[in-house]
Model the fold of this input.
Amino acid sequence: MAKIVGIDLGTTNSLVAIVNDGVPKVLAGRDGMTLVPSVISFDESGAVQVGHAAKETQVEKSRNTIFSIKRFMGKGIDDVREDLALLPFEVAPDSEHIIRLKIFGRDYTPPELSAFILRELKRNAEAALGEEVVNAVITVPAYFNDAQRQATKDAGRIAGLDVLRIVNEPTAASLAYGLQEKKQGTIAVYDFGGGTFDISILKLSEGIFEVLSTSGDTHLGGDDIDERLIRLVMSELKQTPDVHQIQAIRKAVNLAKEELSRKDSSQIAVDALGYHKHLTRSEFNALIEPIIERTLTPCRQAMKDAGIKAPDVDEVVMVGGSTRIPLVRERVQDLFGRVPHTELNPDEVVALGAAVQADILAGGKRDMLLLDVTPLSLGIETVGGVLSKIIPRNSTIPASATEMFTTFVDGQTNVKIHVLQGERELVKDSRSLAQFELKDIPPMVAGMPRIEVKFLIDADGILSVSAQEMRTGKYASIEVKPTYGLTDEQVEQMILDSFEYAEADIEARQVIEARNEAQTVLAATAKGLEDEEYNNLSSDEKEEITAATQYLQKTLSAEDHRAIRDAIDRLSHATMRLAELIMNAAISKALKDKRVREIQ
Amino acid sequence: MNYFEVFGLPPLLGIDTRALEKTFHELSRRFHPDYFTTAAAEEKSRALRMTALVNDAYRTLRHPTKRVEYLIGLYGFKSDGSKVPQSLLAEVFDINEQLEEIRMAGAASDVLLENLRRQVHLKREKFEKDLEASARQWDHLVTGVADEALRKVHIAELSRILSESSYIRNLEDEIENRQGHYFKPGR
Done:
């Protein structure tokens, strides 16, 4: 079958990997680098740059450069207000249920923006493998909810990928570590990345990786450490920095943070603001301690849910760039009482694991099997705004539950079901997932219909719902209104848009570039016509210049860059002798002037 | 197919969880959707439904209390840990009164709360033992020649003990939460 790639779509960096002859390998991009920064920049002409190129101009073009978009996946504006205060993004209206960022007059949702990164990875993989890549496994934080998973899948579809599986990052990492050679044991994977934190406890037995429990925080990562440092710098500045300056501060604190993992002290240097601050590792540790503490609570919860205690853990695996911080390693070691594994590059291990999972799906490794869980309990709203849990958290997926519903009014043909995720008792404290409306129920006396509704969470951790009226055996049709996400129709439209956009994008850019060049050539020609050397041309040559100029002017309005380029070539050719004459005259004039000066 | 049948087991409450896990792994290797990526849509959806059923069954059967809950459900009974069982009314009233006093006590409440938790925990252990004993009786009945009527009587008995023990368990959880062990999930 066609090759399946593994993709780590990260908050800070993204990677693509594949298994070759049984060995997972990260694929390098055209620039030779394996990490693609998850940064996207736009310009007026509609051209888009992704990765290193976009990251380089991040501070100057801060308004049109998008980063950390993963933190916005499956979110509404109320979820991310705090982040937005320090971000240079312009939020479009109508962002209540799905964030829309306005860039050069066009609105983009997080799945569309993530699709740009995925497209770049797809291209990189295609260049490296020399064949088209369509099938992919994409990783997500284990603690991602339904909406966030669905948004990731949507991003894949928009990028032209067939997403065969959504895999949890910590679980993928455990596959990459080759721990199956140990045969048995309990593994804790501590995954602290740029934007998210996950902890997963796994039980390994004869090639089966069974996740016992998972916990985390999808809004806790290196970005939060950066934000803390940014706020520290801002509190010490005399003036309030503007959005561009904040991005300069962000870059400076990030460099200092990274250096503090290698050295005992560093400096936060924001040259543009004349701000310099010496920072020791112990000062830094004191600042980030509360953030690291926030990762330990989910660790304890995960152990409790798995029914184990710290000494039961045989191996601890560290994943994600933030685990390079010495204090993080220290705290994790204290908690589990053993030295964590840090042998594999924490930036690459998830992508490598995704490639291993892709290989399993492709039929490569049949001895390994991953049994993952759903991170959050699934419930339905019942009378009084109470959440009735139907699939508890940490259930192995795929998982299902069946509930019976009926009608309250005679002849009622519709029933609404509100589905939520979360651990709290009340609907208002839980995360709304979707409203399902059962339609076309045969009209009967109130309470008579017996509608069996089946909730199914698939291996991607995504919910689907089906319903059947038991008395008539008729399947009820279901209309789904996702609370924080796109409907199928919206995704379809985005795929179409991105298609047109991808093609129109290149086409438009080429036309704009050709027109700019044509204007330059036309201006140079107009200047040449005024030069006295023009009179030294033959009448044939003069006629051809006039004809070629008119032809280029006429072609200029066409939306065809090739025609414009041809017309430019014709005019360049026609004016070649004139250009030579002018050049020669200029040279001899320069020589003459020189002689005149020497005589004087 | 009921959960017992999925695992090829008779409807007994005494289950060897090691053997159950082994069967779970075997069934997973046979039906998991990972092995059907290239299969036809119908086969794929069958693998998905089958694996979900295997997982649902395993989740239920490996847990002694959920196992009882499922069994009584097969006989049309439902245990509800949110309503106070008649037999516990007086005791629950007493515990709630103590909880209220502790709340008023303020600073000293931690010690008092822990004492109350231990008290409730002992009750919980007693109900769990009762449930175990009743479960063993059930297995005895089923492997013997007990008729359907006798089984139903015993199921009703199981259902009563289950409701009591669930209620007490919930009560202990609630006290634990008040002790500050409450875990607040992230966004």
